[in-house]
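pinning this so it doesn't scroll away 📌
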Amino acid sequence: MKNILVPIGSSENAVSNLQYAIDLAKVVEATVYVVSVFQELSKVGGLSKVNTLLKEESEDRLEEVLSKVDKKGVSVIAHPIKGEILEGINRVNQQIPIDLMVLAPRSNSIKEGVFLGKTSGKLLKHTNLPILVVPEGASFLPPKKIMMAFKNGNFENDQLLEPLQKFIRHFESEVHVLHVETPESTPEMLGVSHNVKQLQASYTQTQNATTFQAVLEHFQGFQPDMICVVRRKRGFFKKLWEKNEIMKKEFHTSKPLLVLPVQD
């Protein structure tokens, strides 16, 4: 885990979110890249000055957040990025391969009933990067116990499990697998790849209507420090993927949520 990306928005939690990423990077010896995205306007009609101001505001926001964190000797590189958020993040990933993106769940403008705001939800839905959603105001703690929940136990690409392997190596994390059989499960989905079996400290198979319901049912029993789920087109967040904004009544967690970038 060499490069960690932290997008900075308008959230008051930007400082705690960046500090969390820095504290994680300190242990795993990673570089932290902090970006603030601004939408450049058309330069016709004398708007170049406006664009200059937008860039300066983005730079000021980065400086403000950076002034409030303890870098702890970690290399922290900040850049304003012009353009739309997804396109900007993809450009960064092309130039600097990102191993993990750390997201705050929502911005200040979002009402209390929302778990993931539109920007965070959009990044979670449309980028093919490992993402760690950090609870608001959370301080970094080594995850000793990780609950990994999935419906399809087939992981053909070892690289997709790399973020989880990094946590195991650096923090001696125990991975407790929750394999969910739903009415949509096929016999192939009920198998578990050898690479997952090598990671797991325990294995539990359960029958539930959805993966999310299984997480809710078994959360207290596992008492995890982190939840790990898989981004599949027909997996966790099945209905939630249909929109960017995710309400707390639909899903929320008080623990860091690691989302692996597996696609069907």
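📌 and the second one:
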Amino acid sequence: MGHQHHHAHGSHDNIRTAFWLNAVFTIIEIGGGYWSGSIAILSDALHDLGDTIALGLAWYFERLSRKQGNSRYSYGYGRYSVFGAIVSACILLSGSIAIIIHAVERLQHPVLPHTASMIPLAVLGVLVNGWAAYRLSHGQSLNEKVVTWHLIEDVAGWALVLLGALLMHWQAWAWVDPVMSLLLSVVICYNAVRKLLEAIKVVMQAVPREINYEAVVHLLKTPDEVLNLHDLHIWSLDGQYHILTVHLVVIPGLSRERLCTLKQELRHRLDHLGIAHATFEIEQEGEECGMGCETGLANPRG
């Protein structure tokens, strides 16, 4: 538990640092965008504003997710982290759509921005967002992963802005500015949708992508004492803490000591497959389940 608390505290501090960096830089970016007349920078300012809101929500939800379970939330508050990831992805997606609309309008009437002010701002953007992304790069929660992708996209976007600013400075190609905005927005939309779908799968209790369902079934049926199994369910609490429940049908006459040993062995082996918490319902052969159970396996993807 000490390690988990240390990790949660580190996650909270990392998101808080990234929030303040992003918030301060967004203000600088908005001023720089108006000063330079660059739609690419203003578009990225809108994006960073969305990221700042997302980071603020992530900061709050990450802190809330550390609360222990109680009579109201028996699993704890871990899934609030997933909710924060969904909100973050939605903000990023809606902001990107607004950028695309504005960039298309500017592409029809391109205006050459003040590239001399764009270049140092772009360099600063790469450095600030790069450092913030590095701070969050070791995070394990889905919330941290979504926020990290936001920041990595920002680094790539600022690198593109820097390249575009240099091209416009040398060649006076005004169309480069809105084209950069479109390219950035398409990439951002793609990743936002991907991360949103990943978070929704957690909420829908889908089998985690990194868990091999068939391998879990094989492992559970390996012991000679296990005759069959049914009602196998695997899901994730928050994108990283995976849970399993299953009914095991065992041979008659097993001692209590052997049943305890068997469950310990299975939990240990399941841990290597990525299952953090396993609950077993033990039944004797021919025993009626009493829970309306089906005799077959649970649908692995249903």
